[in-house]
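> call design_seq(struct)
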């Protein structure tokens, strides 16, 4: 007779592709919105994104405890350690020196993972979980959406502009993460992004620098820049 899996055994481990999808897709799962509306201690996606950005350099246990307590979640340090040992949460990724000593630092998405685990154990039943997993496995999304969802802008075009104008390389990181199981396509699109940057550096960037240089070399009196027509309109109003 086949042994039935315990609920803890069915929970996708930290670092797996399935868990990465689950933690930020949880808002669409059975009972989640209803739980939020009833005031259960769950996070909105906006709250999770804000926490991830605010603690982009990582969270200490004190940060985690503060955020969870503020939300009304009772989460003991012993439970935190147990989840790490079981592979359900990340081990420390760094260490930080504080006045009280050296403390461990955990990934910026730790709260999102704890939020999902709380939902999984307290709200989601086995049938719902199987249904969600089946749907996720069968669902198809475009490369664009897979990559865009891993940027701050949810937009590949905007991420590329940030890359060529300010050197923000998150578009490269997003492509690597989204297409890590399709290495040939990953390398193809990384090369395309790098070629775009090369064209910008070879042509447009030079033209911009030339324009800026010429503008810096010409002078005008401050008096000539006053918009008298606008001042007259302001007075009339």
């Amino acid at each position: 007779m086949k042994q039935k899996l315990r609920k803890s055994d069915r929970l996708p481990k930290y670092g797996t592709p399935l868990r990465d999808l689950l933690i930020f897709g949880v808002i669409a799962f059975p009972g989640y919105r209803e739980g939020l509306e009833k005031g259960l201690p769950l996070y909105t996606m906006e709250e999770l994104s804000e926490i991830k950005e605010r603690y982009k350099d990582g969270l200490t246990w004190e940060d985690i405890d503060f955020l969870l307590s503020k939300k009304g979640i009772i989460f003991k340090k012993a439970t935190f350690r147990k989840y790490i040992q079981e592979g359900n949460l990340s081990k420390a990724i760094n260490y930080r020196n504080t006045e009280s000593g050296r403390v461990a630092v955990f990934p910026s998405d730790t709260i999102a993972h704890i939020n999902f685990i709380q939902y999984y154990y307290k709200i989601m039943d086995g049938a719902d979980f199987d249904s969600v997993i089946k749907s996720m496995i069968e669902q198809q999304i475009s490369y664009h959406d897979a990559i865009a969802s891993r940027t701050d802008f949810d937009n590949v075009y905007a991420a590329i502009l940030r890359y060529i104008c300010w050197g923000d390389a998150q578009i490269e990181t997003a492509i690597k993460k989204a297409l890590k199981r399709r290495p040939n396509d990953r390398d193809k699109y990384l090369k395309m992004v790098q070629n775009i940057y090369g064209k910008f550096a070879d042509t447009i960037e030079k033209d911009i620098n030339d324009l800026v240089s010429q503008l810096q070399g010409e002078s005008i009196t401050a008096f000539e820049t006053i918009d008298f027509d606008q001042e007259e309109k302001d007075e009339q109003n």
